[in-house]
Structure formats: structure tokens, C-alpha cells
Specification:
Blueprint lengths: L1 H25 L5 H4 L2 H22 L7 H15 L10 H19 L7 H19 L3 H22 L10 H21 L1 H21 L1
Length: 215
């Protein structure tokens, strides 16, 4: 009964803000909410809708699905609102993609039987890493390499944790292919950054000294 009431409230909230957004865009109404700017009304619409879905998620275990649109809409609302400080605006895509990725990981962690959520969660997280590294360093190969490694790790997790296909071999094939592609791109990135080789050589020498000292 409580679940049905939550869905009704959610539907009414969506209808209300949908009507307000429609009337505001058509110029039919002139409300304070509308005249503050188009971004504000959409930010409120997305944000409140996202919160409604998140409340639905916590209202019952069977509503695990609600966290996906909840975090996605909430992240979109924050993105549209333009509240991210100017120095970090370039990372807005990272924030939004991260919210989407987080929603799928929450589904898997709270309901392990939904092992399929590992795949979109891992892929979105890998793309998030690509966007972040593209903004952070001037080396596109590094971001692509990390993205492919992340996708490979995603299928490795499917191999380890997917209950219906536990220990099935098929996830290892995309994991291996994507992993090899990631390593190749990272090698290309390292060649573009000569200082990386110096760090690797110093690390290798330090590791040899540490192993020798332990014997």
C-alpha cells in the first residue's frame, strides 16, 4: 500500500512540474519560477523528479530500479542549474556520467542478483575516467587506455560475480581483448610521455632493491 502511494505521489509530482514547464515555455503563465530563467525551471524539474525517484528507491526493496532514474535526473538537474564552480565546469560531464555509473553500482551492491548492472556500471565508469583524464592531461591515448582497461575489468567482475553464469568462460573473452587494447593504448601514451619511462625504471630498480633486502 505504501509502495502504491509513493508511486502516485511520484506521478503527481511529475505531472505538476511537466505542466508548469510546458506552460512556462509557451508563455501562458508568468510565474516567479519561470521568469528566473529557463535553466532554473529545468533544474528544479529534474532535481525534484530525481529526489522523488530516490525516495521511491528507499520506500521498498522491490523499488531498486528507481535509483537509476533518480541519480540520473538529480545529476542532470545539478548540471543544468549551473551550480558547479567555474574552475570545475570542464568536469561537468564527469559529474553527470559518474552519477549514472553510481546508480548501477548501487543496484548491484544492494541487490547482487542483478549482476547485469555491473556491465552498464563499469562501462559508464570507464567513460567517466576517459572524460576526466582527457580534461586533466593532454594525452588522449592515456584516457582511451584507461577506458579499455576499465571495460576489461568490468567483464572480469561479471565472470567473478554473475550468479547465473558464475565461472562461465564467455566474460573472459571481452575482458582479455579489452585489457590487451588498454595496455596497447597505455604503451602508446607512455611513448608520448617520455618521463613515464624514467618513473618506471626508477620503480623497477627500487622494487629489485627491496626484494633483495628482504632475502
Amino acid at each position: 500500500m505504501r509502495s502504491q502511494a509513493g508511486r502516485i505521489v511520484l506521478a503527481l509530482v511529475l505531472i505538476l512540474f511537466g505542466v508548469v514547464a510546458l506552460l512556462g515555455s509557451l508563455g501562458v503563465v508568468d510565474l516567479p519560477l519561470v521568469i528566473t530563467g529557463p535553466n532554473f525551471i529545468w533544474a528544479v524539474l529534474f532535481g525534484v523528479s530525481g529526489l522523488a525517484f530516490i525516495i521511491t528507491f528507499f520506500s521498498g526493496r522491490e523499488n531498486w530500479w528507481a535509483i537509476i532514474p533518480g541519480l540520473t535526473l538529480l545529476g542532470l538537474g545539478i548540471l543544468v542549474a549551473g551550480v558547479i564552480p567555474p574552475p570545475y565546469e570542464a568536469y561537468s560531464g564527469v559529474f553527470f556520467m559518474g552519477c549514472m555509473a553510481l546508480s548501477f553500482w548501487i543496484v548491484f551492491l544492494t541487490h547482487p542478483e542483478n549482476w547485469w548492472a555491473i556491465i552498464p556500471g563499469g562501462v559508464l565508469l570507464s567513460i567517466t575516467a576517459l572524460i576526466f583524464l582527457t580534461q586533466l592531461v593532454d594525452n588522449g591515448l592515456l584516457g582511451v587506455g584507461v577506458m579499455f582497461l576499465g571495460m576489461g575489468a568490468t567483464f572480469l567482475l561479471v565472470y567473478l560475480f554473475a550468479k547465473p553464469v558464475a565461472r562461465a568462460i564467455w566474460p573472459l573473452f571481452p575482458a582479455g581483448i579489452l585489457g590487451v587494447m588498454g595496455v596497447l593504448f597505455l604503451i602508446g601514451a607512455a611513448q608520448a610521455m617520455n618521463w613515464v619511462w624514467g618513473i618506471l625504471l626508477v620503480a623497477a630498480g627500487g622494487w629489485i632493491i627491496w626484494r633483495t633486502a628482504r632475502k
